[in-house]
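We close this part of the discussion by returning to an individual protein. Part of our work consisted of pairing the sequence of a single chain with a tokenised description of its backbone. The amino acid sequence and the backbone structure tokens for this protein are reproduced below.
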Amino acid sequence: MGASGSKARGLWPFASAAGGGGPESAVAEQALVRPRGRVVPPFVFTRRGSMFYDEDGDLAHEFYEETIVTKNGQKRAKLRRVHKNLIPQGIVKLDPPRIHVDFPVILYEV
């Protein structure tokens, strides 16, 4: 209890690979990225886009359409949110790359 799923043994890419004592384990403990099977870079180069394309090819977070409502003989315009026929943006390249959220580094400015 209390352990996050991403930090479980063998799943967290930056977890310590050193199990015993000794000088090599002290050096490995101070290293930023420890080689462990596959090398995981500390940067994120792409992300999933949060916007959508509509039928006209417009790109936005949300789409609304104007509808006319008649109430008590008065015409009134209302905006209704569109949920259908929207295509997700997909993968977006980040420029510049970002540091991975699980990378254990404290950033400071001198």
In short: The beta strands are 43-48, 52-53, 59-60, 64-71, 74-81, 87-88, 91-99. The longest strand covers residues 91-99. Residues 6-11 have pLDDT under 50 and may be disordered.
